[in-house]
């Protein structure tokens, strides 16, 4: 009898031990399933429902998919978190995770002089070519250096924008000599400034929000931008000549705080790069739709659209990059890029 009681007691003890262990395992599994997603913010200056907005939302969706919902990206448009300067500085401080806008904005970061090469006149022959080369190992080295010096990293450059063109108020541009003497609003990017000074223009630095008024009041004779910025901002209401010079092919850049980047696993980094590629495809598609309709929009508004002699412009600007070679970017980089085009 006593032996039976002991046996029963042992059985109860074993069952209790197994039950406790099972509960602990279940609790552990439940905790693992409840791990919160990493929440991230991405900001832009572009308007809601713009191509960039749609690109960012596609990015957020793909980041969640690629990470199996471990990454949750919140999108902020319309400059809600500040202008480009503010967004960049917030990423440097680590108070904002990511930004999305024109890749050229990288040149405003400390240590980014090598990336002036993005605006070397006629460096690329198409937007597709630019996207392929800028996402290569050659440019990754430059992005790594900028990240170390500035605290902001370009982790991808997917999204083909409209090529840059010249828009003028009072005369058509058909050849390089037509630019001489014009007062042109050009972004504060050294090599772009040199490009137009080489053509004999007077470069006037103005913010994007000042261009429309400056065109209307005769403060400037023209500006250089692509369809994607010029048409939504209605510059064609004041400047009635458009010259498709295609002197620079631009991309959109996916920027991230280096502090955030260093805190990510390889899997999370890969998820963000894949998401940037998906978002860039959306941006490219929507930009192309705008480009396809742009000439009609301009002509309907009374704008004279011309296709200048690009070979003449290339010849006139052929030596501009040499003023920066070995100073802003490594010696021989232009030649290496040209070989990648073959």
UniProtKB/TrEMBL annotation:
UniProt GO BP: transmembrane transport
Family matches, as Gene3D superfamilies: Bacterial extracellular solute-binding protein, family 7
UniProt keyword terms in alphabetical order: Signal
Pfam families for the chain: DctP
Superkingdom classification of source: Bacteria
InterPro entries named among the record's database cross-references: DctP_fam (IPR018389), TRAP_DctP_sf (IPR038404)
Protein name, as recorded: C4-dicarboxylate ABC transporter substrate-binding protein
Organism whose genome encodes this protein: Bordetella genomosp. 4
């Amino acid at each position: 009898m006593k032996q039976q009681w002991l046996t029963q007691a042992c059985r109860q003890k074993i069952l209790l031990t197994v039950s406790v262990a099972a509960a602990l395992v279940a609790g552990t599994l439940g905790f693992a399933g409840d791990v919160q997603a990493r929440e991230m913010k991405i900001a832009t200056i572009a308007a809601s429902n713009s191509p960039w907005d749609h690109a960012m939302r596609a990015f957020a969706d793909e980041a969640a998919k690629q990470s199996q919902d471990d990454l949750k990206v919140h999108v902020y448009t319309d400059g809600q978190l500040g202008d480009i300067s503010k967004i960049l500085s917030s990423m440097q401080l680590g108070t904002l995770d990511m930004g999305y806008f024109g890749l050229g904005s990288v040149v405003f970061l400390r240590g980014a002089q090598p990336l002036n090469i993005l605006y070397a006149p006629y460096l690329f022959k198409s937007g597709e070519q630019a996207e392929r080369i800028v996402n290569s190992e050659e440019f990754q080295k430059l992005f790594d250096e900028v990240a170390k010096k500035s605290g902001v990293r370009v982790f991808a450059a997917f999204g083909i924008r409209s090529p840059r063109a010249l828009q003028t108020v009072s005369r058509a541009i058909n050849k390089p000599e037509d630019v001489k003497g014009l007062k042109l609003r050009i972004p504060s990017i050294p090599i772009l400034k040199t490009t137009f000074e080489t053509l004999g223009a007077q470069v006037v630095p103005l913010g994007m929000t000042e261009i429309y008024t400056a065109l209307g009041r005769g403060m400037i004779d023209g500006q250089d931008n692509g369809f994607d910025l010029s048409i939504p901002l209605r510059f064609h209401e004041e400047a009635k000549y458009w010259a498709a010079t295609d002197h620079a092919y631009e991309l959109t850049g996916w920027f991230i705080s280096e502090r955030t980047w260093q805190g990510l696993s390889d899997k999370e980094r890969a998820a963000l790069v894949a998401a940037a590629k998906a978002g860039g495809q959306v941006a490219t598609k929507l930009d192309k739709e705008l480009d396809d309709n742009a000439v009609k929009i301009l002509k309907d508004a009374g704008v004279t659209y011309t296709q200048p002699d690009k070979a003449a412009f290339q010849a006139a600007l052929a030596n501009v990059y040499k003023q920066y070679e070995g100073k802003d970017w490594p010696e021989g980089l232009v030649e290496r890029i040209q070989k990648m085009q073959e």
